[in-house]
Amino acid sequence: MRVDSLMTYSLIVMLFYCSLALHQPTDALHIEGRTMGTTYHITYFDEHGRDYKVSVDSVLREVNHAINTYDPTAEVSLFNKSTRGILLSNSHLRSILYTSEKVYRESQGAFDPTVMPLVNAWGFGPGKSFHVTQAKIDSLKQFVGFQKIRITKDSLIKLDPRVQLDFGGIGQGYGADAITLFLQSKGVTNLLVELGGEGMAIGKNIQKNKAWTIGILDPNSTRDNQFFKAYAEVKDQSYTTAGSYFNYREIDGKKYSHTIDPVTGYPADLPLLSASVFAKDCTTADAWDTAFMVMGHTQAIKLLSKRKDLDAILMYSTLTGPIETFITAGIKNRITLER
User: Fold this and answer.
1) Residue 230: other Cβ atoms inside 10 A
2) Long-range contacts of 303-308, Cβ-Cβ distance < 8 Å, separation of 24 or more
3) CATH 1.10.3980.10 in the chain, residues?
4) Dist CA 237 CA 214 (whole Å)
5) Angle between helix 91-106 and 171-185 (nearest 10)
6) pLDDT one digit per residue (tens) for the chain, 339 residues
7) How far apart are CA 2 and CA 251, in angstroms?
8) Residues 124, 249: contact at Cβ < 8 Å?
């Protein structure tokens, strides 16, 4: 090869790599807003600098119109008000139902979205709360159970006209998945989605050239004084946390968790204070953190020992006072605990 040709070739290669460097998306883009009674925050990198705020809000409106019980026109609300069921016209409702059914079976009923009547009875839903008695709880439990509904090719059917659905224990995770799938469809490969504390971490934080890092609240946090107990490095994985941090109801001086046990009909009252779950999708993780709060840490640890598709951090109280932390082996090397 002639010298001048070699120089020309080298110049072309150098210009090619310089061009690549100039187009690397090193500046993070940020989107935030409100949805599902909470907030969302998204950080992503896009070489074209596209702002997806309007599109993300549109996606979330579609999700809410399918699964949000606080929206009287939502498909789930129409089902709850029906006597026989509804035609399934919304793919979001069908998708969340399939995941709900799967986790319901695998958790042996610890996660059950038909818990809605009990959620309302304890004052945690859109319906009016009333004085809770054992007789009333026993009455409501008669029409709680996922086996009391049927999902067909085109319909969602009630086997008892009093059955109602509540996606409070899974909905935010589903919303985070919907946002993630939308951004990925646009070619975004490095993003962090957080919706009400649940989210997805895809790729890495390009600015720091490392995996995304998320914080997990200390169970001793209050609404006015929030601080982290642990930090987790997350890549291509979801993260969710369930706990009784701020959402509880006080009756006669006693605090009751918003997580309702579908079997007893009462709020979960176990030593488990918080459950953080990591899985491939946020919908599944969100359902399982709810299930673990109902099951308690002892049963949750037994189940986790048999599952390779789930990782978790469980924080629970002990008789001696200090909060203990259990971390599954699959994520242990990516967790930093605060002392």
Assistant:
1) 20
2) 303/107, 304/328
3) 69-158
4) 12
5) 130
6) 443 433 333 333 333 333 334 445 579 999 999 999 999 999 999 999 999 999 999 999 999 999 999 999 999 999 999 999 999 988 999 999 999 999 999 999 999 999 999 988 888 877 666 668 899 999 999 999 999 999 999 999 999 999 999 999 999 999 999 999 999 999 999 999 999 999 999 999 999 999 999 999 988 887 788 889 999 999 999 999 998 765 556 555 555 667 889 999 888 878 899 999 999 999 999 999 999 999 999 999 999 999 999 999 999 988 777 889 999 999 999 999 987
7) 88
8) yes
- Each as own residue / partner, the long-range contacts of residues 221-228 (CB below 8 Å, 24 or more positions apart, any chain) are 221/245, 222/246, 227/338, 228/338
- Written as one letter, the residue type at 12 is I
CATH for 69-158 is: 1.10.3980.10
DSSP 128: P
SS3 264: coil
- In the chain, CATH 3.10.520.10 covers 211-339
In Å, what is the CA distance from 244 to each residue of 63, 130, 264, 299? 25, 21, 18, 19
Q: Domain 211-339 classified CATH 3.10.520.10?
A: yes
Q: CB-hemisphere CA count at 13 Å for 306? A: 6
Q: pTM for this one?
A: 0.89
